[in-house]
Amino acid sequence: MLIAAVFVNQSTATKNQNIYWLVCSQFSRGVYAIFGFYDKKSVNTITSFCGTLHVSFITPSFPTDGTHPFVIQMRPDLKGALLSLIEYYQWDKFAYLYDSDRGLSTLQAVLDSAAEKKWQVTAINVGNINNDKKDETYRSLFQDLELKKERRVILDCERDKVNDIVDQVITIGKHVKGYHYIIANLGFTDGDLLKIQFGGANVSGFQIVDYDDSLVSKFIERWSTLEEKEYPGAHTTTIKYTSALTYDAVQVMTEAFRNLRKQRIEISRRGNAGDCLANPAVPWGQGVEIERALKQVQVEGLSGNIKFDQNGKRINYTINIMELKTSGPRKIGYWSEVDKMVVTLTELPSGNDTSGLENKTVVVTTILESPYVMMKKNHEMLEGNERYEGYCVDLAAEIAKHCGFKYKLTIVGDGKYGARDADTKIWNGMVGELVYGKADIAIAPLTITLVREEVIDFSKPFMSLGISIMIKKPQKSKPGVFSFLDPLAYEIWMCIVFAYIGVSVVLFLVSRFSPYEWHTEEFEDGRETQSSESTNEFGIFNSLWFSLGAFMQQGCDISPRSLSGRIVGGVWWFFTLIIISSYTANLAAFLTVERMVSPIESAEDLSKQTEIAYGTLDSGSTKEFFRRSKIAVFDKMWTYMRSAEPSVFVRTTAEGVARVRKSKGKYAYLLESTMNEYIEQRKPCDTMKVGGNLDSKGYGIATPKGSSLRNAVNLAVLKLNEQGLLDKLKNKWWYDKGECGSGGGDSKVSPRDRSDGTPVNLAVLKLSEQGVLDKLKNKWWYDKGECGAKDSGSKEKTSALSLSNVAGVFYILVGGLGLAMLVALIEFCYKSRAEAKRMKVAKNAQNINPSSSQNSQNFATYKEGYNVYGIESVKI
């Protein structure tokens, strides 16, 4: 018995005539049946040839529509199962990517159902894409689908093309939660699903080979024992569905010829052998017997129950319905012609089950970052987890103890936290290792962000933090020669000088005007007392001396006698008391507070200048925060950072810190506050954190989507926080081991109550990253406030007293001087009136009894001119 194997595709035969001669040459050799493959271009030629010559053609290729005699189709029809699955998922809008080489029968069935059920189907032919530009074409295709909001896609292609498409789906980031793909072939497990397994997207498909079947298990067991040199592909534990159909085809032919022998039917090509070269062609006389025997075969094969109808098509077959989970492909049901779609897995794993972890070594990915994970000094002499130390190392040990699993710490290969490339859309760092199944959990200073939450799950935050500014610690300012003037502002000193001069002048004037400031002094001229004269001690120089003595709190030998003069002295004493007390108090603060002049104090200061460069880590959440922020200040900073030359971004935090230290104050590094605080406590103690945090976020422990570790880790983090162990760990690695003196800071962690992966949680993260939450708070707390602008907080450094701080005492001084001048005027007027009355009385008395020389002298004095002071002369 001779059976020919023929594989026909576009590269083997591009013209029908070549196909004809290829098959005819095999027929002329005296074959009884032909086994082979066909494509869309060769199917009509082959089926026509076999029908004409009555030679049976057994093929695992796609099933054809219509009736084709002498064609035995090993591959079951997928149309019914696909339509049932679409209805099960309740799709009403989706894209259908098909390979035209497989035929259009399945697509036509989908379009017919779409017209009946009002589905919106976008059909795209991917069969004729140029191999040289296929990657670019696939990326462009899915980007166009994204613009149309098409996130449900059917891939009606074979394994190789499906793998190519999946690669580009991952490249542009369309393998995350929210997307759903159905692979419309019979080999769901044949493709490389590991790449998309942990992305978060739903992936469904069909499987004709049931690995739970005993026949399949025995075959694989025998296959794995064969020599690979003699049987290429041996030692594998899987079998492709096309290989299974090929194996079943050989089994069908063997069973058919065995049945013919049992029926004692002699099959020979010697007589009536047929002639394909004759015109017209002469069919083989016994070909009908072989066709009938083949269609009557009913056996159990690797593809399940094998039975054919009168047209040579598979009937009574079962197709398994598969879904891709984080644990791998899982059967959720099956489809058959009788029962249609039957779902057998009604409850999917919820992620809570941690059974079996005690027998599994969990791969923990982390990153070398002080003080979270560091190599021990003697790490070369140690093995495994003992080589590392740090906050996250201790945290991993506590988590493993609470969850009850063994673990292995591995350092991320590229040294990055995890970001998606803007061009390729591929995740790198620890996030990439979780997404692509290289690690089971990430315990590291990994920030919880929206884009990461879409592809991985986070635990409750184990540490709260925010973006902060690190600069090189400025040098302590050397006190100047006149630094004793610093406690008071420049304008206060000027006002004190003017006040001193003004008080002295006013004191002089009121002393001149007030009669009560004058007193009589008698003096002798030679032999006898000649005369007496009125004097005033407050000349201009004595007034200046009195004011200076009072200001210096030393006093002098003279003091005012008049009420107006004493008012001037009193308000001046009160003024000096307040000024000297304020100066002394502020001077003490200046002497005890370390004064360093910082060039910047906030993000606003950074954004308003260009002398000091500033940047972030090149791949991480800090850079993503600025890129996505809609706050004007942060957007301005992002515009500067992305266009700065040379680049202000650094590859690692250590590189950023080194750049700050070497830049002589010309570079500021934006990083998480916790790391900023830690580095500030490390030698050479030359960095410092300035300003407040730019945002509020947290570090979380990450797991792949749907991981069974998620809830157990959540509970462990909450328990550790309630027990205070998280605070102890931070104090241990930040301050107890600090090298720059004691540190402080509130390390209290307040985990937020979050529902992992829910739309609400993702929305809150997005609003927080865009600054919308801060805007809302400012709107309802401060913009609509009724008590003025919010207090931005006082600076830690001591500042000089401004004029506004002591303005009141100047007002009192001016008021007192004005009062003194008014009192002096009143005194003058009162004394003048009293003296006028006295002089009038004296004149009348002299007119009545003019006798004494003394009276004559006084009268003479009055005649010379009116003198309010009643004396002959006034010494000025």
Automatic annotation (TrEMBL):
Annotated site location: Interaction with the cone snail toxin Con-ikot-ikot: R420, R627, K719
Positions contributing to L-glutamate binding: P445, T447, R452, S621, T622, E672
Membrane topology: Multi-pass membrane protein
Marked site (Crucial to convey clamshell closure to channel opening) residue numbers: I600
One Gene Ontology CC term in the entry: postsynaptic density membrane
InterPro entries, per database record: ANF_lig-bd_rcpt, Glu/Gly-bd, Iono_Glu_rcpt_met, Ionotropic_Glu_rcpt, Iontro_rcpt_C, Peripla_BP_I
Domain Ionotropic glutamate receptor C-terminal per the UniProt entry, residue ranges: 361-736
Positions of the Ionotropic glutamate receptor L-glutamate and glycine-binding domain: 371-436
Similarity comment: family membership: Belongs to the glutamate-gated ion channel (TC 1.A.10.1) family.
Classification via PANTHER family: IONOTROPIC GLUTAMATE RECEPTOR
Catalytic activity, as annotated: Ca(2+)(in) = Ca(2+)(out)
Native source species: Fukomys damarensis (Damaraland mole rat)
Function: Receptor for glutamate that functions as a ligand-gated ion channel in the central nervous system and plays an important role in excitatory synaptic transmission. L-glutamate acts as an excitatory neurotransmitter at many synapses in the central nervous system.
Name of the featured protein: Glutamate receptor
Keywords: Cell membrane, Disulfide bond, Glycoprotein, Ion channel, Ion transport, Ligand-gated ion channel, Lipoprotein, Membrane, Palmitate, Phosphoprotein, Postsynaptic cell membrane, Receptor, Signal, Synapse, Transmembrane, Transmembrane helix, Transport
Membrane-spanning segments: 488-510, 571-593, 808-830
